[in-house]
Design brief:
By secondary structure, the protein is mainly alpha-helical. The protein has 10 helices and no strands.
Amino acid sequence: MILLGLVGPALTVWFKDTDATLLVNPEFIRGMGGNNVRYVHSLPYNSLAAYVIGICLGLYIYDAQRIDKKFPNRKVLSLLTWMVVPATVLLFSISGKYFFGSHERAPLLFRMIFAAMHRPIVASLYAFLVLSLVFKFNKFGSILADWSVWRIPSRLSYMVYITHVNIIQYLLGTRTQLANISFINFVMNFVGVTCISFLLALPLYLLLEAPFTNVVKTLTHQKLLSKQDTKKE
């Protein structure tokens, strides 16, 4: 599966001559993403490598907690935890400068390598961050992650994920004039889309996700009880 997640995006770039990642430029906005969204972002195998890394992380955490695993060199691990976000910024800064800073399109080989590797790299970085928060390599990060204020946003996160793209497309589709590209405008758009997404996600969670989840839990619980009753008989 992880091999498919590495080879699939690279072959898509090769056969379809797409960009290595989604580049938000005037052509992208005018065409509402066009084929780039489907080929570069939406195809199932594009995120398969990151999905496998997440599964492996979950299994490792489960086994480590079950055997009460001890981690040596916690100071080094704590320092590495602080480096996750700077490493992410550095990765996207270098790649963004290369893709946007040059007037020429990136070579095919580099686009294939970047398409294959950037998701697994980011997934590995944040898998380590999750591992650090679970096993408390960094005290400050663990205290921040355990803060009870994250409970409500975490429950709404799936609906936010579903709705935010539609909100962005609506805002772009109803725009009647050009927008100035600046840091403050970017921050305002980001905060605005985030707030609207959470406001829409709340009723969707209460009316759709939560009832459906409870129905599924009830059905699965009844099946487990029936299986246990048949075994006892």
